[in-house]
Amino acid sequence: MTDCLVIGGGLIGMLTARELRLAGATVRLVERGATGQESSWAGGGILSPLYPWRYPDPVTALARWSQQAYPGFSSELASQTGVDPEWTKNGLLVLDAGEKAIAQAWAGDVGARLDLVETRAILQHEPGLNMPPEEALWMPDVAQIRNPRLLSALKVNLPAMGVAVEEYAEITGLVVRHGRVEGVETSRGRITAGSVVVAAGAWSGRLLAGLGYSLDVAPVRGQMILFRARPGMVSRIVLNQGRYLVPRRDGRVLAGSTLEYVGFDKTTTEEALAELSRAAIAMVPALADYEIERHWAGLRPGSPCGVPYIGEHPRVQGLFVNAGHFRNGVVIGLASARLLADILLRRKPVLDPAPYALVDRESIGCGAGVAP
Fold this sequence. Notes:
By secondary structure, this protein is of the alpha/beta class. It contains nine helices and 16 strands. Strands 1, 2, 6, 7, 8, 9, 15 and 16 form an eight-stranded mixed beta sheet that branches. An eight-stranded mixed beta sheet has the order 4-5-3-11-12-13-10-14, sandwiched between helices. It starts with a strand and ends in a 28-residue tail after the last helix.
């Protein structure tokens, strides 16, 4: 029997499986499709919430822990697998000057580096910007990771560590007896396990239905486009009015993203393509000269306030959840996986687990909506 069974082969599931295996547990990961797809692959890989000061403290705590851990983690993964996740500290340039007061107050509270820069300095950071504002916010420590490469590295790393990975196995039900989980039923048969972790992103709520607790996680579609630009065309992560540009090392530039409540529909739309292209070219006009190489959509696991659920099911022993990371799965993934492993293994947790517990978020003043 496997010690720990992880349901979900996205970034959160893969990182959770890795943490549990590092602790010496036997681990099996089951994914209904191919590992490393869905929301994990579709995002931009920015290692910061877009407007970090808009999020509640529990998100900030996860992000700050992960940001400190990412450089070493990325280097270690590249060394072990030969696949470089391309951790790169570009810095984040926020052109929304109206965010100044709340951003500066937040930075002072959490100890983040944030500078107010004027037009000349803005153009030094990003010379190709069109009509930069008089003031902008500059966060020099913000990095990115190339999330498809990160996932490729993990796909190599997990089996090498001894994690059993099973793809294209649909979970048809959880096996629960006398208030304790005993495993899962899959399209290929039953798998028994001492503990089960649900890390299935936007699909997590469906898996837990009927167990006496409703997980408030729902799909939120995000569409993105990719410009095949030249290296140096854009050098910083740029954010303006909810739209952003992310430059990759090879010159490609990601532009994102939409925020759409359309259920489990991953269809791309011409309207989003036009709007994302317009917003990107408005920021950096030279992008108009380059081909839009790809246009895709992913489903984020939306949750109240954007605070993920990390902890044990309140009614089923041995059943754990690591889901609901909304727009920040990449940046808070390392801390989330570590915290889940700490809780499951009864270790001293790296962060206070209480804010992430499976409770009614209304009762802790989180409200019914999701963070911006």
